Amino acid sequence: MHPGVPMVTVLALMALMMPLFSGAVDIRQLRQLAARHNVTCVLVFGDSSVDPGNNNRLPTTMKGNFPPYGKDFFDRHPTGRFSNGRLATDFIAEALGYTKIIPAFLDPNLKPADLLHGVSFASAASGYDDLTANLSQVLPVSKQIEYLKHYKLHLSRLVGGKKAQNIVKNAIFVLSMGTNDFLQNYFLEPTRPKQFTVEQYQNFLASRMFQDIKEMNRLGATRVVVVGVPPLGCMPLVKTLAGQNTCVESYNQAAWSFNAKIKEKLAILRKTLGLKDAYVDCYGVIQNAINAPQKFGLVETSKGCCGSGTIEYGDTCKGLTTCADPSKYAFWDAVHPTEKMYRILAGEAIESLNETLID
Question: Which residues form the signal peptide (predicted)?
Answer without folding.
Answer: 1-24
